[in-house]
Amino acid sequence: MSNQKSGSQEPNEGDQERKFRKVFLYIVATLITVLTVIIFGIMVVRGYNDKIWLPIAMQHFPSIVGLPMAAIASLLVVMLLKYTSGPIEFEILSLKFKGASGQIIFWILCFLSIVLAIRLLWPLEINVESVRMLQDQFKE
Fold it and tell me: Which residue segment(s) compose the domain that 77 sits in?
């Protein structure tokens, strides 16, 4: 009889662990997104009130907003892939990545590919005249 109890508890513990991980990952992703929005909101409010963040935000928008969003997007891709097709396992050359290492390496690859896309597709040249015009508008 004790074998039946221990046998029936193991799948329940596995199900509970999966549910906990799923909920925990969604909570972490939500907290990261909320904190990013709050920090960006603080920067916008301070930039509007003090006029100090506007030139910095305009000149470095891909790094201020693009990189945190790339991190979140990479996390969501890894989470979605894990929950739709199971644990992430792959092999590069002779290195095998399984379990958490597979997820970490896949997140790094996703993040770097999004960052590279931002770098290649976003014009990083700054039009100094338009920045000055915006600074003058906000000073008034």
Answer: 2-139
